[in-house]
Design a protein that fits this description.
alpha+beta, 6-stranded antiparallel sheet, 8 strands
Length: 148
């Protein structure tokens, strides 16, 4: 699925690198304004929407991925996104030879990795140029719009 870079850049991403399966690095991105999450699979080159639970990443259906990639950041969590997060990717193609199982329904994420990512988000929200203070950063929505 193609990514529209102007809509992609309307989000304020917090990213982390994961290697849940040896030799298959992933980059997980979560917008701290709307809460939408994506995974970039460096092996396949795919980018897809995911629901992040405490222990797993659930790949969302292609319809949700396409829609979220085309929409600008709504700047807040949407009620409809909760229904979208309940969808799951289902592999359509039936092949004669079973390939290595893709990351489809659930990928385990360590609790330590998840806790570290959450701490990083909290730390980023409370720091500005290394100085503790109210939530503010150079990549905040107001600053991005002011410089657009």
């Amino acid at each position: 699925m193609e990514t529209n870079f102007s809509t992609w850049n309307s989000h304020c991403w917090v990213s982390r690198r994961l290697e849940l399966v040896p030799g298959q690095p992933l980059v997980q991105r979560v917008c701290h304004e709307c809460g939408r999450a994506f995974v970039d699979d460096s092996v396949t080159g795919e980018r897809y929407a995911v629901h992040v639970s405490i222990f797993k990443l659930h790949r969302l259906c292609d319809e949700v991925t396409s829609r979220w990639l085309c929409e600008k950041c709504p700047a807040e969590p949407l009620i409809g996104d909760e229904a979208d997060r309940q969808t799951r990717f289902i592999l359509d193609a039936v092949v004669d030879v079973a390939p290595a199982p893709p990351i489809t329904n659930a990928v385990p994420a360590s609790t330590i990795t998840t806790a570290n990512a959450l701490r990083a988000v909290v730390r980023d929200k409370s720091m500005k140029n290394g100085i503790p203070g109210p939530i503010a950063s150079a990549s905040s929505r107001k600053n991005r719009e002011a410089h657009a």
